[in-house]
Amino acid sequence: MTTVRLPLFPLNSVLFPGLVLPLNIFEERYRAMMRELLKTPEDEPRRFAVVAIRDGYEVARSAPGLPDPTTTLEGGPAAGFGPDPVKAFHKVGCVADAATIRERADGTFEVLATGTTRMRLLSVEASGPFLTAELEPLPEDDGDEAGALAEGVLRSFRQYQKRLAGARERSLATGAELPDEPGVVSYLVAAAMMLDTPTKQRLLQAPDTASRLRDELKLLRSETAVLRTLPSLPAADLTRGPTSLN
């Protein structure tokens, strides 16, 4: 089994391959991570791993709060994730490639990264200035009937999208044609749907593309039925994740 160790960035959201991830970095542990990534030559990938938080806080508490205002605050790379950080995270995540890392005058960073490949979290190390993780690459097969399922998902997604946009014609990404490669379809639709983190996590860790597409087809049909009974909602930017406040 081939493994790799990368910096680890836990979030309260799920990153999928192909999804653009903007980050606003202000905590010292993640500033240290970005300074380390900047040591990588520009012509090489500046990679880190993103995992969804199962139990913990994306941003470490910076002041005492309820219920005890005198609580001693945690510090260090594992702050907010408990004594055994690996238990705080979902076990399947995504490798991200930081295409842009820009340091501001105040020492914070503006980062734009893109999800690349899935990985499985094996262990977490908290002895340095930021978390690192031992990771196992997680390849994915198409599975049975992935092509036909992708066509069905795209049809259902168009109906879902129209409901979100108030029944107006609106394309997935500023007029671009929808993709037709099953794996790309499965990840793009998973990222685009308005779903909670556990459901998105389930889609990320599906055993193959066909399984993810089958799950998405059921979700699209049920969510579209719900949207028929709701007022119009704005369409989301379907190729970008929410900006993390880190």
TrEMBL record:
It holds the Pfam family LON_substr_bdg. Residues 6-224 form the Lon N-terminal domain. InterPro entries: Lon_prtase_N, Lon_prtase_N_sf, PUA-like_sf. Signal peptide: none annotated. This is LON peptidase substrate-binding domain-containing protein.
